[in-house]
Specification:
With about 325 residues, this protein is an alpha+beta fold. The chain folds into two domains: about 5-125, Probable inorganic polyphosphate/atp-NAD kinase, domain 1 (Rossmann fold, 3-Layer(aba) Sandwich), CATH 3.40.50.10330; about 135-310, Tumour Suppressor Smad4 (Sandwich), CATH 2.60.200. The protein contains nine helices and 17 strands. Strands 5, 6, 7, 8, 9, 12, 13, 14, 15, 16 and 17 form an eleven-stranded antiparallel sheet that branches. Strand 15 (about 290) and strand 16 form a beta hairpin. GO terms for molecular function: ATP binding; kinase activity. This is DAGKc domain-containing protein. InterPro entries: ATP-NAD_kinase_N, Diacylglycerol_kinase_cat_dom, Lipid_Phosphate_FormReg, NAD/diacylglycerol_kinase_sf, YegS/DAGK_C. Keywords: ATP-binding, Kinase, Nucleotide-binding, Transferase.
């Protein structure tokens, strides 16, 4: 067994993930883990809050390795729990058995779905550092929420609100997307991006972008929305956020532009603003909601910043 996975692990299972797929397939994976003498504990949760509380308590008890059995939401729940614990994030390794709906974080990291292939991935995996994003919001920006993949506002958070607690399958997401492309009214947003440091060590000027934005995404990973490639240049350990903001376009242009989100060329769209930055502030006049890793958090304004290589994850060693 690879040294990276020889330590004790805590598997936190969301039985509702993927329409019940996690509950159906966990017994098989459980037996496979036992047969390979993996040291682990597991818990089946009944709610998001329970998953967070469990991750927090196990981190405070000294557990440093966590596996989310579910989707992006389950990963986010464990991240929040560990983030709220006394254990420094850089002592933690977090990965996923991708049995959720979108599985966009797993897609970016090429983590397989089938129990047999996942077990092979796990037993041979290596640890790698991973950036963590922090959303700062609320009064005096005193509230903080961590994310590993993608945050967003505008059309993006509108779709999540329309889907509601039902969440559901990828097909439901795309149906809601096309309805929202017709109904959503874009608002004027202001983005203020911190400057990058040049090769000479000197920082350039900050960038301010004010426009009527259809959608604004702040990315560590590349994928969101069940396979849409919002950030084709994103790297999960480069210490940068990839910011995509699309200027509003008429309905039919919205429809015919959708392939750009699937073919990895959205940064080349004429209406796209795409920049990398260590932090970005987003505000508007209507107090739209923003989301982190598929969860509606609060209303704008918000500041997103990157904490480079603050957590560890598993990657294929092959």
């Amino acid at each position: 067994m690879n040294k990276a996975v020889s330590s004790p692990w805590c598997f936190i299972i969301n039985p509702h993930a993927g329409g019940g797929r996690a509950a159906r397939q966990w017994p098989d994976l459980y037996q496979r883990l036992k047969s390979h003498s993996v040291t682990f504990e597991h818990a089946i949760t009944t709610s998001s809050s329970q998953a967070r509380a469990l991750a927090c308590s196990r981190a405070n008890a000294g557990i440093r390795n966590f596996i989310a059995v579910g989707g992006d939401g389950t990963v986010n729940d464990i991240l929040q729990g560990v983030f709220q614990s006394k254990l420094p994030l850089n002592n933690v390794t977090l990965s996923v058995v991708p049995w959720g709906t979108g599985n966009d974080w797993a897609r970016f990291h090429h983590i397989p779905h089938s129990p047999n292939k996942w077990l092979s991935f796990f037993l041979n995996a290596s640890q790698a550092p991973h950036d963590v994003g922090i959303a700062q919001y609320g009064k005096a920006y005193a509230s903080h929420h961590a994310f590993l993949n993608i945050a967003g506002t505008g059309l993006d958070s509108h779709i999540i609100q329309q889907m509601g607690a039902a969440g559901g399958k990828s097909l439901r997401y795309y149906l809601t997307l096309f309805k929202s492309l017709y109904r959503y009214t874009a608002n004027t947003m202001t983005l203020t991006l911190a400057p990058l440091t040049g090769g000479d060590g000197h920082a350039a000027s900050k960038i301010t972008k004010r426009h009527k934005a259809l959608i604004t995404m702040v990315c560590i990973g590349q994928y969101g929305g069940s396979g849409m490639r919002f950030a084709p240049m994103a790297n999960s350990h480069d210490g940068l956020l990839d910011v995509l903001s699309i200027t509003d376009i008429p309905f039919w242009h919205r429809i015919i532009s959708t392939p750009y989100l699937l073919n990895g060329k959205i940064n080349q769209h004429p209406a796209a603003f795409y920049q990398q930055t260590p932090s970005v502030a987003v505000s508007d006049s209507t107090n739209e909601y923003f989301q982190c890793d598929g969860e509606i958090i609060d209303k704008l304004p918000v500041r997103f910043c990157i904490h480079p290589q603050q957590i560890n994850t598993l990657i294929s060693s092959r």
